Automatic annotation (TrEMBL):
One of its GO terms (molecular function) is hydrolase activity, acting on carbon-nitrogen (but not peptide) bonds. Residues 99-280 form the NodB homology domain. It comes from Micromonospora viridifaciens. GO terms for biological process: carbohydrate metabolic process. PROSITE patterns: NODB, TAT. It holds the Pfam family Polysacc_deac_1. This is Peptidoglycan/xylan/chitin deacetylase, PgdA/CDA1 family.
Amino acid sequence: MSGRHLPVSGVAVTGAGTAGGGGMADGIRRWNRRTLLRRTALLTGGVALGAAGAVESTWIADRRLPIAGGPASATLGNRHQQVGSGAVEVVWGVRTDERLLALTFDDGPRPEWTTMVLDTLERYDVPATFFMVGSRAREHAAVVRGRLGRHEVGNHSWAHRDLARMDAETAYEDLRRSHEAIAEATGMAPRLLRPPWGHLGGAVLHAAARLDYRLVLWTLQMVEGTFPHDIAGHAKRIIGDVQPGTILLAHDVGTEQRLVALRGLPDMITGLRDRGYTFVTVSQLLRHGAAV
């Protein structure tokens, strides 16, 4: 038992002596301090080496991933970039002193929902921008054909999958396919893109530039979950939150909960007009102010 403690006692006696008056306890404290400093230095060096190793490992791992042309990359290969006009704009809304707002609908078309929205907009003479899913536009072309005279359309991907997880070529093919389906169904070629969930990545930017799109997100979104059974309350909340230059996001496809917003469109439209607001399409709004 004592043999296991001899090295500690020996060090303590040698470091302390008897003249200093500190005895074994002070020696042990000094030994502990020296050991701690030495081990801290070794540990610090190890951490530094470990950090360098981690960086090196990450760099090596990244080289094995499809970074070039992958979801994170806004460039494709080392040849000349085929990117349309060579630039892409991203907007959330506009700065303007005019009481203008753009009403937008995502995820359609769908027969019951989109028809309800179009009927309401026609009754109140309100233009809107519909960001359509290409596969749904192809399937439900009859819902929108001939009914979009005052409206405009945008691209919302082919099947509402996350474009930000796709590589550059896959994202481009998805949007190109959707573009063609929307143009065929509506007779209008989309010039705007809203990626699903607003997810952006380098590949999305690259694909948008190739298709000469403007990327449009939103300033304000319907909050149906806060007013699940209160149509008037939801409309009042949105009316209070709108500011000049707002791009307002709604959906003409979804769960039953979202119908709170759609059924409240008449109250919302009337209330905003009472506050002096004019409804315009997204493209019209962008012509009236600076993007934010």
